[in-house]
Amino acid sequence: YEKIDEYMLDKYPKKVYRKRAKSVLPNDPAEPGEIQANVRTIPGIITQRGCTYAGCKGVILGPTRDIVNITHGPIGCGFYSWLTRRNQTRPESDKAENFIPYCFSTDMQDSNIVFGGEAKLKEAIQEAYDMFHPKAIAVFSTCPVGLIGDDVHAASKEMKAKFGDCNVFGFSCEGYKGVSQSAGHHIANNQIFKHVVGLDDTRSDSKFRVNLLGEYNIGGDGFVIDELFERCGIEIVSTFSGNSTIGAFENSHTADLNLIMCHRSINYVADMMEKKYGIPWLKVNFIGTEATSKSLRRLGEYFEDEELIAKIEAVIVEEEVKVKAELDLIKPNTKGKTTMLFVGASRAHHYQELFNELGMETLAAGYEFAHRDDYEGRRVIPNIKVDADSRNIEELHIEKDEAKYSQKLQDKKAALEAKGVEFSDYDGIMVEMEKGSLVIDDISHYEMEKLIDMYKPSIFCAGIKEKFAVQKMGIPLKQLHSYDYGGPYAGYKGAVNFYKDIDRMVNTKVWSLIKAPWATGAAMNASFVKVS
Ligand code: CFM
Ligand code: HCA
């Protein structure tokens, strides 16, 4: 760690040094230290973070296919969030609605900024309604909307009342609203809960009904999980929000259990559903073979049904044998190699499972925008300092729905808790990382380059912004956001895909053969000339 201090952080001005040092920790799994997270990025530093609008529109609502998502703002915001996240969807038929390939925007102009954009927004909502007659229209605010004071909620309410058969709701998810995408997740959770969840009480008659929260079907991960659940006889009422529909969200409060994959982006919905409807939640992870088996077993444990448990065990046995055969061939090639993972949030934690299975060591990891609980575990939530930025995001006051609340599920939870089953819990990344490995929040580009220089990992995992800079340093970069257009990586089938891709990447010679142009000689020369 002294080396880190000396080599990575010491170039910062004193004030910046003091701030950044609080976000860089040597790990101790036995006693996770306090890390600074979810605070503003220091101006001037190159961060990998995105904006609140991206978290709300792109991440949470983006994967839902039958809502017309209108971006209220300049065209760039809509354009750059159009099909850039690799969420897949499978409409029920060729005729079923699927608006994902469309990019809807009010295309705000200077005159709308000066004279207001609400009229144009209402026109856009009307146009979308006339053309598609969708079940729902969602309106997403970009930065200028908040600055000029357009009321997207009033406009949505007015249009909803006018149509009568189309749910219209807005999001105050202006890009600057929070310090990162994370604020956008929270805003999206709130509005979906307020305007959609609970509208349809229909209960299918299947025995085991769950929601899968925080699974966005990137590269088809959700499809793999759906298939596994189907084989076990478990119905997914709604996924939030991979391959989802508005109808599934409306019906989701009828499930008997919520499973959380990505804790950061969706824990709010789980908490609100528990308060209002009494649905307990469990943390799961379907990234990694062992993690997948463990998560499936948690389901058996929850439903306490012999037949279900037997089915789950049969699936586990069948799949683990296949995975083992593949891993036995690959592991000798990857064992002893090293990695670093820096992604938005959950994946920097979940993917360590797959690297462990490959016998690879994680030297450093961190999140762009997660909160202290994703690092240190949910037990620190009461101690998290609420600052002006977090206060900016609305906390909904949720009350029990007397008619729909399930005391039965809560009694079940209490009985299982007495037997040691842990509900509503997430232990965070730190307890599972090696002692002495590095944990870094909102890593800067500069820090990333220094880390790579110092440790020369066999592979670096991050996103498109880092990819080419890192590869020019001679290190392969695996995108854990888009999967480099590969995947799926979830479940057993996904694990095997990942093992193969990583084996190929860490063992290719190409990276040691290339040299960035600037490494072979200065591309440009300049000298300091003193002007007298
Ligand atoms: Fe959750 Fe995600 Fe992630 Fe995320 Fe994202 Fe993503 Fe991500 Mo990119 S919801 S936090 S806001 S697991 S889009 S599917 S890959 S940064 S680590
Ligand atoms: C986002 C989306 C993103 C970006 C990925 C990347 C994604 O943050 O708005 O930087 O490569 O997964 O698509 O996280």
What's the arrangement of secondary structure elements?
Layout: H1 2-9, H2 14-21, E1 24-26, H3 52-61, E2 67-72, H4 75-80, E3 104-105, H5 110-115, H6 118-132, E4 136-141, H7 143-148, H8 152-163, E5 167-171, H9 181-195, E6 209-215, H10 221-232, E7 235-241, H11 246-251, E8 257-260, H12 263-277, E9 281-283, H13 289-303, H14 306-334, E10 338-343, H15 346-357, E11 361-367, H16 372-376, H17 388-391, H18 407-418, E12 438-440, H19 445-455, E13 459-462, H20 464-471, E14 477-479, H21 491-507, H22 510-513
Parallel strand pairs: 2-3, 2-4, 4-5, 6-7, 6-8, 8-9, 10-11, 10-13, 11-12, 13-14
Antiparallel strand pairs: 1-12
Helix pairs in contact: 1-19, 3-9, 6-8, 9-12, 13-14, 14-21
This protein binds FE-MO-S cluster and 3-hydroxy-3-carboxy-adipic acid (HCA).
The site of 3-hydroxy-3-carboxy-adipic acid has 13 residues, from helix 3 and helix 20.
Give a description of the structure.
- The protein is an alpha/beta fold.
- Helices cover 44% and strands 12% of the residues.
- Among the domains are: 52-178, Nitrogenase molybdenum iron protein domain (Rossmann fold); 209-334 and 377-418, Rossmann fold (3-Layer(aba) Sandwich), CATH 3.40.50.12380.
- Strands 1-12-11-10-13-14 form a six-stranded mixed sheet, sandwiched between helices. The chain has a four-stranded parallel sheet with strand order 3-2-4-5, sandwiched between helices.
- Strand 2 (67-72), helix 4 (75-80) and strand 3 (104-105) form a beta-alpha-beta unit.
- Helix 1 (2-9) crosses helix 19.
- The radius of gyration is 24 Å and the shape is globular.
- The model has no long low-confidence stretch (mean pLDDT 96).
- 3-hydroxy-3-carboxy-adipic acid binds next to helix 3 and helix 20.
